[in-house]
Amino acid sequence: MIKNAALVGEFERARVRTEKPDYRRALKIVEALRKEAAAIGRSCDRDPLDGINHKIRIAKALNHVRTTSRQNRRRAR
């Protein structure tokens, strides 16, 4: 457990300032993440907007549900 988050944050910021970006290392990390995603059955190749219309329709329906008024809540008790 982190007891002093501010100290850890300062340490991380100092490390980022002193560390140079490494393109090859970043590519290795991205490739490893892609392989891991493929291993658990997640594909990065599919369209991220696939099925968005369905999700929007559900969100609209949920946002239009009216809540019970205070008077009706009192009567129900």
Tell me the domain tally: 1
Arithmetic mean pLDDT = 83
Order of helices and strands: HHHH
- How many beta-strand elements? 0
Helical run tally: 4
Structural class: mainly alpha
What is the rounded distance between the termini? 45 Å
Helical residue percent band: 55-70%
User: What radius of gyration results from the CA coordinates?
Assistant: 24 Å
Give the biggest sheet: none
Shape: flat
Poorly predicted regions are none
Kindly estimate the percentage of residues that lie in beta strands according to DSSP.
under 5%
Question: How does this structure look, described?
Answer:
The protein has 77 residues and is mainly α. It has one domain. It has four helices and no strands. It is flat, with a radius of gyration of 24 Å. The mean pLDDT is 83.
